[in-house]
Amino acid sequence: MNELRTVSAPPVPEAFVLRKKVLRLETLYDISRALAVLRDEDSFVEEVAARSVALLDAARGFAVTFEGSGSPGAISAVGFNTKPDAIALASDSFVLDLCRIVAPLQRENETVLGRRVRSAVGVPFVTRGHVVGALVLMDREARSGEPSTFDEEDGRFLASLAALAAPALEALRQLRALSFDIDRLREENRALKGTLGVDEVLVGDSLPMRRVKDLIARAASSRANVLIRGESGTGKELAAKLLHSGSPRRDAPFLALNCAAVPEPLLESELFGIEKGVATGVEARMGKLELANGGTVFLDEIADAPLAIQAKLLRVLQEREIERLGGRQRIPVDVRVLSATHADLAGEIQRKRFREDLYYRLRVVEIIMPALRDRREDIPRLAGHFLTRIAQRDGRRPLSLSRDAVAGLLGYPFPGNVRELENLLEGAAALVSGDVIESADLQFGVGTAKPQSAAAAAAHQLDLAAVERDHIQRVLDSVDGNKSHAARLLGINRRTLYRKNVS
Ligand SMILES: Nc1ncnc2c1ncn2[C@@H]1O[C@H](COP(=O)(O)OP(=O)(O)OP(=O)(O)O)[C@@H](O)[C@H]1O
Ligand SMILES: [Mg+2]
Known about the structure:
There is one protein chain. The longest helix is centred in the middle third of the chain and has 44 residues, at 152-195. Strand 9 and strand 10 (330-332) form a beta hairpin. The protein has 20 helices and 14 strands. By secondary structure, the chain is α/β, with parallel strands linked by helices. It folds into four domains: 2-175, Beta-Lactamase, CATH 3.30.450; 203-368, Rossmann fold (3-Layer(aba) Sandwich), CATH 3.40.50.300; 372-441, Helicase, Ruva Protein, domain 3, CATH 1.10.8.60; 455-502, Arc Repressor Mutant, subunit A. Helix 2 (13-36) packs antiparallel against helix 3 (41-55), helix 15 (379-394) crosses helix 17 and helix 18 packs across helix 19 (483-490). It binds adenosine-5'-triphosphate and magnesium ion. The site of adenosine-5'-triphosphate has 17 residues, from helix 9, helix 15 and helix 17.
């Protein structure tokens, strides 16, 4: 183009002005695209300085960013024999004027960086009212038909450029802060996991507990799916977490989903995700199986998963692929599946409520958490563990149990297992005035502290089941048989209600 100009007559002013405008717009477009993929502030200042110096035919120019404290961050200088000193640059009077005026500035016969310049133009980068950087161009190269000084239009162009550049710089900084936070959290997480061994988390030295801990330690390192069985409150979830944190997947996510607590349609999208537009206004969302890629998914109360979901789960385990709801694409996933239940799955299989093929896929390894009444010798240590934790949390003096209180705990059947023990001590700690918990401070639940024979215990459980059924029936009658309503009143899941009422 320049060669053309030397041989032909100068272009008509309108066409020239138009061409210049198009070139500037194109440059802005290019810059906006380049800024979107920048990774650090050094490339940011280089991009901005190089492009604007070239476009405005400047002899020299520089771009600088400022840290929160106002000190210079990244610098890029074009057309200088030696790179300007950062401090001199940040305290230059022209740059300081830009920061003060917070608008484009264009001057003639100015001193910039101790050097006399014929013409200078500059713009500050502003985000949320703060000047986070500046761009300065000096001395326009003389061109035929063009003034040799910068004009107002150049100032406007730089203002447009700054309007694009400043948010990009802000985004870069937020990204840096975020990745710093992520690194720190990962580090903390690793430290926490490293300091807590299986023994400190899962308290108990009884033979059944030692067996469980040994099994957890051995199963953790493999990628086998593990089914954890046990009564309510026996530590199934705790075991699942230990299996994950002891595995090579420990730095990837551990995501839990309670199959009894989530209604069926939601359960499906929670697990498999959903494609955009499945229903009006539905945005695409990843399911837990996809989110946990590389990590572990814990399916709690697996016996409550409806048959339709069981079929889909089986496919995931066989093919290691998922399909989002309403989606056609098959997405590969690498997840280890841990599941837990208090139900008798073999019975559920016989009753055709649980798929046998899925059962074998989930139960590559089986861990059975022992009931607390079958390992009473662990009660004193567990009690000590919880009391220490309560005292530390509440900042109070160490709590202990009287001899009578210990005897009371040892004689109680703990239908709610470790969770019940934990709650019982929580309640006692709240009531006790001193530091010693007496047996009178322990408020045992509906069960009885009286030692029971096995037959009496069984009879008692039968009674409880009958009482429960009667109660459920009364609630159902009161709402004209509306199961959803009754379940809400009873505070239980609809499927659970269904099972309890028919069996
Ligand atoms: N061996 C143990 N050592 C220390 N704490 C335990 C132990 N077992 C269970 N707990 C504690 O008891 C409570 C219940 O444990 P968890 O939630 O793992 O039981 P769960 O078997 O999943 O119960 P549910 O069937 O009701 O869901 C938790 O607060 C857990 O920290
Ligand atoms: Mg649980």
